[in-house]
């Protein structure tokens, strides 16, 4: 079976990643990756789905996060896809008693594979986070 609308499904995969991370829903996040998936970014690298989920504990530093998924470019090649997704991630945290908001302008470079198993869905085989810019300001209101 092939995916009748892979571009939509790949955009939805990126949105489900954002939702799972922001909700700290690690079981849901695990379903989005292949068992041997890799996730890397500035100062981190995880080499399996289990390591990715364990590594997400670093988000405990933030009271909350909110990932916004923007434009996405997809190159399809049979059951694989190269995907670049732009977005902004906001991180709320406290430093020296002051609530702050750290924003990242980011891009994800992904290699996704179509899993033709029971659920016939796209999964991340590798995901690389690139941070293009940051802004860290006191949060008011």
UniProtKB/TrEMBL annotation:
Residues 7-128 form the SnoaL-like domain. CDD domains: NTF2_like. It comes from the Bacteria. It holds the Pfam family SnoaL_4. This is Nuclear transport factor 2 family protein.
